[in-house]
Methyltransferase type 11 domain-containing protein (Gluconobacter cerinus), 255 residues
Amino acid sequence: MSRSPVSHETRIVDQFTRWAKPFAELPIHADAESMAQTVSACSVTKGMKVLDVACGPGIVACGLALTGADVTGVDLTPAMIEQARLRARKAGVSVKYQIGNAQHLPFEADSFDRVVTRYSFHHMQEPSEILAEMVRVCRPDGRIIVIDATPTPDCQAHYDLAETLRDRSHTSALTLQQLLLMGTDAGLFPLETQQYRLESRLQDQVAPEDWSALKAMFVEDIASGQDRLGLGAWNAEDGIHFYFPISIVVWRKNC
């Protein structure tokens, strides 16, 4: 008897159960400069109701809670919610966390002033459906903020190949143009777009069994001088370094 295919949701939970603690502790995820940009883009004030979708270990949720916002975080992976609750206790902030699926957010329509997700869309098979759910639970005139890696069109295929090797739950990283069009299709009004690069060391971002193949891909890309991965990779004394190309897109939900 053949085995049933593994669902994508199971793949996500398996990946992030395994990586929950290392992911939570990796310094780049709490990088001060990118966090400041994230908090600024969300433009929250004390008492605002904020939802962090696919919140992971609660880094963004806790950062927003420090402003006095009323923050809720939802994630598919129980191990990530455990890390998020631990982070909130250490930070001395109150965040309501719960396990939930971004495709079917367990909240009423028009419930939140701000709805944000960071580094999640590239894990989603149908990111437009996630965005539609974010729109549904956001109140009219509220803000929706999506933050994710956005490779250039000419590098997208190579970028996805490298990311899939590094992370089996990766689907495809949207280009900035694709992300903006998705917002237009959802009837959202664009307010702001920012971009930044997040430096990482390759060996910090890959499981040991995938290291050789991924390293070979990066070595070849560096040697070619063409940057086909779109990651600007280079050799440093402590290994291969590269940049994640990140975009922040902010929309307003129309009345």
